[in-house]
Specification:
The structure is a homodimer. Chain A is an alpha/beta fold and about 350 residues long. Chain A has 13 helices and twelve strands. Chain A has a six-stranded parallel β-sheet with strand order 2-1-3-4-5-11, with helices on both faces. The first copy, chain A, is elongated and about 85 Å long. Chain A binds a DNA duplex (16 and 16 nucleotides) through helix 2 and helix 4.
Chain lengths: ~350, ~350
DNA sequence: GTGAAAGCGCTAACAT
DNA sequence: ATGTTAGCGCTTTCAC
């Protein structure tokens, strides 16, 4: 049990006051006209004994924790895991740390998480939230803490946000399938009341409407036990034998969809053309490779953290600060799963 | 900018002292014989105005943060992402929060992270570390903070640990391939000096030794740019045309391996039988499905957090505490990728 | 049963 | 140029 060394000990040993040590450590030496020689001596000793200021005390005093709260739907989802890893890396490079939590799309859990983050005095928030927490987020904004919504907006909430234009992504995907000659195109989406799902569905609907074709939408309730999801999908596909093309609105739906189609023995793309939102290893390496609407994850991470840090470091502590709403373009990556075989 | 409510405000409003409020809030009301009526009144008002104690101040005072530092190799790796999600969930259920960071297998970055966690006074650590930080971890142990190594041990370090018996997993996998009639079995592993890699390689070697068969091991340096990894693999496979079975020592090697084999046009399992360590969606849904050595992720998460919390809540603050080393059994999941086609 | 007061370790305004 | 000191918000001992 090594005894923790304190600023007091450092000051004592060097025979200076703790204020001097503190000032040197916080880069205020010049400003306070502390001799370079002394400053150097302090730094050297601190390094030597490995003194690390107690961040709790520091934060309590300064009101700044250098911690960012990251709230995602599910950290084990490859999309969120990847974006989280990128955000972590970028935040670290700028001296910030991340506390993350998964909501599992549960509003009650999310409320708890937000309140815990608040109690821990995180400096700012990056949030991908479930529906139903608008009031809490509004309060958060009012509290003056910087925050950026990512992946999805919240209805009736005007704040910093970094999202992907799912409507145009889905529109492109649907047009692509239409271009391949498919006319009976299904959309499998999540029933979750999430705004980004609605906009994806809208892009799909618009492409069909332009051609006067009917929609065929299957909503899957989430979260749910995998076996049920698979069964819902199998039932759906079985009930629509005329449907030979399907778009999955998220990566996990796509994964379940492939499994369901596999169970039904449907050959891709011969018997069923497939497109999924989100890209991942599975889609890329599947046989055939799956056509996807890829989200720009690197850009989402970069923009989210940039917008947040800009707000964090802006001088206007009042709520008058500027607001940034970014909408990034996804990219349709055409692969074998959606190509009409030459007949 | 809503004004933050303090314990002081609560006490003032109720016309009691802050001590009373604090005691009630910390469940010491009975012990201190505070009237039920008063306690009830405090609780109700606290609830009403949504008072949340400042965790920084609380932690500074009590020395307890209720935060656990989780250090993994890469949070975007499905294995770590899944285990992290499980650990987070289990920790939350017990009132603890997680700060996580990825090491990217970089010893210097890891040293930084550990030191930051220390400065933030996390209550305990769950660690999957790169080689080269033994000294720091030893110091951490000496400092008396509970810690559990997971996924991998560190050479010469005796601490709490939850790992998987990679040797027996690989032994089983190799025996399985031998049983299918393969004799020229390659192992593709990561050159990283990690103990769990060594033990996996050893299981493979032992199975071959028992049959008097030669080893064929390819080490891939990590981390590295994807394109290089693919090329290294392709070169390796091209250089060993007699090799018709391969085992990948981790999930990411397996993913790259499938891509490399795909590029080379090798059919699985007809031209190359494939087994990978770790299971994931890709392996499960690939055509053919990939035989894997699956790690018990749920159990790893559960045991890691249990061991840590046990240490955290044990009364012996001295280093005399008990030490737990758990080795969990992985499970060979045989799928189509490793089955000899009936000829 | 309840309240006053002493810190936890640090920063920064104010003295000197 | 450097030292003194008053908090940051909370917990908890000890006196009433």
């Amino acid at each position: 049990m090594k005894k923790k060394i304190l600023i007091h000990d450092v000051a004592n040993h060097l025979d200076v006051s703790i204020a001097t040590v503190s000032l040197v450590l916080n880069g205020k030496a010049k400003e306070k006209r502390i001799s370079d020689e002394l400053a150097e001596r302090v730094l050297r000793y601190v390094e030597e004994v490995g003194y690390k200021p107690n961040q709790l005390a520091k934060s309590l005093r300064t009101g700044k924790t250098n911690v960012i709260g990251l709230v995602v739907e599910d950290i084990s989802n490859p999309f969120f895991a990847t974006v989280a890893a990128l955000i972590e890396q970028k935040a670290l490079a700028r001296g910030y740390h991340i506390i993350y939590c998964s909501t599992n799309d549960d509003a009650a859990k999310t409320r708890d998480l937000l309140s815990v983050f608040q109690a821990r005095h995180v400096d700012g928030y990056i949030l991908a939230l479930p529906a139903g927490v608008e009031e809490e987020v509004r309060a958060l904004v009012r509290s003056g803490k910087p925050l950026v919504l990512f992946d999805r907006l919240l209805p009736g909430l005007l704040t910093n946000a970094v999202v992907v234009d799912g409507a145009s992504g889905m529109y492109d995907a649907t047009r692509h399938l239409l271009g391949q000659g498919y006319t009976n195109i299904a959309l499998v989406t999540a029933r979750a009341g999430q705004l980004q799902m609605a906009s994806r569905a809208q892009g799909y609907a618009q492409a069909l409407r332009e051609r006067g074709l009917p929609e065929l939408v299957q909503e899957i309730a989430f979260p749910q036990v995998p076996e049920h999801i698979l069964q819902e999908m199998e039932t759906f596909f079985a009930a629509h034998p005329a449907c030979h093309a399907v778009i999955f609105a998220t990566n996990y739906l796509g994964v379940y969809g492939l499994e369901a189609l596999g169970r039904l023995g449907r050959r891709i793309p011969a018997e069923m053309a497939v497109v999924s939102f989100d890209d991942n290893d599975l889609f890329r390496l599947y046989s055939p490779p799956i056509t996807v609407v890829a989200q720009p994850m690197e850009a989402m991470a970069e923009e989210s953290i940039s917008v947040l840090l800009a707000a964090l470091e802006s001088p206007n502590t009042e709520g008058t600060g500027r607001m940034v709403q970014l909408q990034l373009a996804p990219q349709l990556v055409v692969r074998g799963s959606s190509l009409r075989l030459t007949s």
